[in-house]
Every structure is written in structure tokens, then in C-alpha cells.
Design brief:
single chain, alpha/beta, Rossmann fold, five-stranded parallel beta sheet, 5 strands, globular
Length: about 120
């Protein structure tokens, strides 16, 4: 696959262990990877044009709340790494999908498959 045509997965957060693990999953899945500690603007996301935005925790998703209305309008799936007990909170914060701990490659792949489906299905 041509590097210029590969879709990007955007990781939001600063957890080195999760960045490494998800980075390996992204690499194995043949996607490009972009990592930012926080989202500062929707324009930043538009420039990256990610297939999916993965927040490394519900706390990182909470930090982005001021931008969530705009983020949901750009047709990019929003995924959050969370414990099963945090799913309701993640959904309230605007997540389309949760990637539950312990995070596995199969769980990652499943979240991306859902991310490929049109929103609202």
C-alpha cells in the first residue's frame, strides 16, 4: 500500500505504554500513525484526516469536550480506551466505540471495523 494513500489512526494522549501497544497494532494493520497529547483544534484533525481518533482514556476525551460538537461533524469515528465500567461515561462524552481493557489486537481490529461503518449504523 502506498504510504500517501494509507489512512491514519490518530492517538490522543500521553500514555507511553498504550502509545507503544496501539502503535504496534496500527503498524500491523497497515495504517499510518499520528499521536498528539491533546487536540487543540478541529483544523488539526482535518489536516490529519484520520480514519479514527482513539483517545487513550476517558480523561483525555473529557479534555476535548469543548471540541466534541465539531469533532462529531467531521465523520471520523471516536474511540476511547476504557474499562467496561466506564462505557456509559465514554458514550456520554461522545465516544462512538470503546476499546476495553485489557486491549487486544482483536479488540482493536473490531473497533476499526465499526469505525469503517457509516455513523449511526
Amino acid at each position: 500500500m502506498n504510504l500517501k494513500t494509507r489512512r491514519t489512526i490518530l492517538l490522543v494522549g500521553n500514555d507511553e505504554t498504550l502509545n507503544y501497544l496501539l502503535g504496534r497494532f496500527v503498524e500491523e494493520s497497515k495504517y499510518a500513525l499520528a499521536v498528539v497529547p491533546v487536540i487543540t483544534s478541529v483544523q488539526e484533525i482535518t489536516n490529519i484526516n484520520p480514519k479514527a481518533i482513539i483517545f487513550l482514556s476517558t480523561e483525555h476525551l473529557e479534555v476535548a469536550q469543548t471540541l466534541m460538537t465539531e469533532l462529531t461533524s467531521i465523520e471520523t469515528s471516536i474511540i476511547v480506551c476504557a474499562a467496561l465500567a466506564d462505557e456509559a461515561r465514554a458514550r456520554e462524552l461522545g465516544a462512538d466505540r470503546c476499546l476495553f481493557h485489557p486491549i487486544t489486537y482483536d479488540g482493536f481490529q473490531n473497533a476499526l471495523e465499526v469505525a469503517s461503518a457509516p455513523k449511526g449504523t
